[in-house]
Amino acid sequence: MTEPLRIGTAERQAAINALDEHLAAGRLGIEEYAERSATAANAVLASELRALFTDLPPPHPDLPEPPVAAAEPRGAQPSVQQGTVLGRWGPKIMLVVPLVAVGLFLLTRTWFWFLLIPVAAVLFYGGDRGQQR
Q1: What is the pLDDT of residues 63-89, one digit of tens each?
Q2: Where are the domains of the chain?
Q3: Closest CA relative to residue 116, chosen from 106, 102, 133, 128
């Protein structure tokens, strides 16, 4: 579920300008224009402004679009199954790995301990990618 997008003064003004054009074109009556303009002036979310233009042709104000979540391709399996031991403990272990790497670095003054971080990530998350279960 996406979060509602908040708008600012520029978006509210663009909506009022578009409503002005619809009033001038005769698509809105004075009362309806007054109601929609008041709603536009008090709008906080982009969805509130979009609702004002659902029954009107362009022009519409340019409003920010909610980010589109990348959908997983059909049939794709996540690389770590949530029901497995690795699926439950992998993220928790990955939280500790950088701390362990820093601790070992401070003890030994050897930088290669930091290689534990990507190695652990590959072991926990990249090992079964692309395999069908």
Answers
A1: 887 776 665 566 555 555 555 666 677
A2: 1-69, 73-133
A3: 102
